Amino acid sequence: MDVFLTGGTGLVGSHTIQHLRAAGHTVRAIVRDAAGADLVQSLGGTAIGGHIEDESCWHAAEAADAIVHTAALVTQPQSWQTYQAVNVTGTKYAAQAAARSGARLVHLSSVSVYGRQPTTYRGVVEEHARWAPLANSDYYARSKRQAELALWSVTRANGVSALALRPCVIYGERDRVFLPHVIRAVRYGISPLIGHGNNVLAAVYAGNVATAIVAALEHPEVEGPCNITNDGAMTQREFFCTVAEAMGRSVRFVRIPLVAATALTVAYYLFRRLTRPGRCAGIPASAARFLATENPYTSKRAEQKLGWRPTTPPKEAVARAVRSLVSER
After folding, report:
1. Distance, CA of 13 to CA of 31 (rounded, Å)
2. What is the pTM of this model?
3. How far apart are CA 146 and CA 90, in angstroms?
4. Are 262 and 291 in contact (CB under 8 A)?
5. Could you tell me if 64 and 103 are in contact, meaning their C-beta atoms sit under 8 angstroms apart?
6. Measuring CA to CA, which of 128, 186, 197, 323 is 20 to 30 A from 80?
7. pLDDT of residue 191
8. Contact between residue 94 and residue 105 where contact means Cβ atoms under 8 Å apart
């Protein structure tokens, strides 16, 4: 299968190239610069220069058997207009390219489309979950929700076979958002525990998300949304301990009440908004709640319809990712 892929230099996209190549598929990936081209080629893909918000670069996708769209802005300090251009318009172009070529389309969405749910909300499934209101300043969640709406508008009107995978927080090798902050804290010999620390994290390994993408290509009859949010139960405490073990460090846990942690993240978020007006303020104030509460999502639809099973258990995944990130420094 010839796969046209976006986001090949990103966390999930780079893992997806590796898994697609291992499965015998060819991969052509859009890159923005020479460094991106070098990474894609080192992973076994073919690099194509371009920007996903530029409609002309999508002409190269029209000969593909499948389109895998993983590119997105996540926490970059950019304006709302830039988030719209990349996350929303880029997704609309992916859907239009699939409509022109008849290619299978797999879009990497996010559980953020559901909204930042209250801590008591449980059992978030694709078909029945309500979509909570989003703050205007939550550029990532707003743009991902609009991207999905654009996706379904185009694909349903044109009969495109499309699937949107909705992962939760993703970590892994080449992580630039989550794990580097944890590693930095562990280097100083401390590890914060938000609340009691025995909650199962809503986190998933990038390599396991990539296997879900491969499974989605192998099951073109499955359409609509699928959560990819459960690849093994790892508590907040176990996660930090595994990071420390992989680094050969001992850490002292510092327990922080959820109320205090939330106040700190809100203050930081407001500070970033004041110092970078009109731009994304990074990780939203719900970050503390993510660390302190149980994983509210289920991946049952992906398991039942795609036959998806995580190939890398969480302890091995965390250790592998940490060793890779530490070796890069």
Report:
1. 11
2. 0.92
3. 11
4. no
5. yes
6. 128
7. 84
8. yes
Helices (H), ranges, the chain: 11-22, 34-42, 80-83, 90-101, 139-158, 179-187, 206-218, 236-247, 258-275, 287-292, 300-305, 314-328
Show Cβ contacts of residue 310 under 8 Å, excluding neighbours closer than 6 positions: 205, 208, 211, 231, 232
DSSP string, 171-229: E-TT--SSHHHHHHHHHTTEEEEETTS-SBP-EEEHHHHHHHHHHHHH-TT--EEEEE-
pLDDT band, very low/low/confident/very high, at 53 (cuts 50, 70, 90): very high
The token pair at 197 is: 């620390």
Q: Which residues pair with 203 in a beta bridge?
A: 169
More confident residue, 142 or 132: 142
Integer-rounded Cα Rg, in Å, for the chain is 19
Q: Report phi then psi at 258, rounded to 5.
A: -55, -40
Q: Cα torsion for 280, 284, 129, 136, to the nearest 10°?
A: -40
Do residues 165 and 110 lie in contact, with contact meaning Cβ atoms separated by under 8 Å? no
Residues sharing a CB contact under 8 Å with residue 329, sequence separation 6 or more, in sequence order: none
> Which residue segments constitute the domains of the chain, with CATH numbers given?
2-168+202-229+295-310 (3.40.50.720)
Rounded to 5°, angle at Cα 216 from 157 and 8? 95
Which whole number is the average pLDDT over 30-36? Answer: 96
The whole-number pLDDT of residue 263 equals: 67
Q: Give buried/exposed letters for 71-89 (b at 16+ CB in 10 A, else e).
A: bbbbebebeeebbbbbbbb
Characterize the bridge pairing of strands 252-256 and 190-194: parallel
Q: Nearest 5 degrees, angle CA 45-CA 50-CA 54?
A: 135
- Over residues 254-295, the pLDDT tens digits come to 888 777 766 666 665 565 566 666 666 555 556 667 778 899
